[in-house]
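In response to a reviewer's request, we include the raw inputs and outputs for one of the modeled complexes. The two entities were modeled together in a single run.
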Amino acid sequence: DSGVTQTPKHLITATGQRVTLRCSPRSGDLSVYWYQQSLDQGLQFLIHYYNGEERAKGNILERFSAQQFPDLHSELNLSSLELGDSALYFCASSVAAVRGDTIYFGEGSWLTVV
Amino acid sequence: ILNVEQSPQSLHVQEGDSTNFTCSFPSSNFYALHWYRWETAKSPEALFVMTLNGDEKKKGRISATLNTKEGYSYLYIKGSQPEDSATYLCALNSGYSTLTFGKGTMLLVSP
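The model returned the following structure tokens for the whole complex.
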């Protein structure tokens, strides 16, 4: 158990809908990262928050947004969903935002858009 | 865009075989290299974080080496067991704390 908790584990929704994925980082970790794993793609970085502030953006679509709350949990909001958004979404956390920190991953949230 | 390559894409070995995989990365963009072990339906498990050229790390039967000058890392598994079956991922820290992942090597160990 990595200590990173993600909910829901599985989600099926229709095109055009909006969903929210939730992540609780390991106790004491200030950084939260979101990654997307699609078919035939490696893990793709979406966005990074550190202590409530956005620190870096990767290949995140404009239809997607995220935030980190004062209690350090994070949510990833996916809207106007398309079939191609079906993927495994990982949340990860680390103590700080230092290169070389070990980054711990949750089990992921499987999103299926039908 | 950083390119992290892993080979082979997949590997099937017999129990007791030793095996190794390769992770290649641009040597000019190196700060740290991470190895993860990922079993389906579980979270990727951090194995090693390596930062120094020539670094060697070991965890049980799994070990890794790093060559930052030529841009590669090897992961070795000695005496593979069925429970080693998983996808092994490497990821690069370059200019920032986020990770750029390779596509992984899928290992299947048959009894």
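As requested, we also summarize the result in words. Chain B touches chain A through 25 residues (CB under 8 Å). The longest strand of chain B covers residues 86-93.
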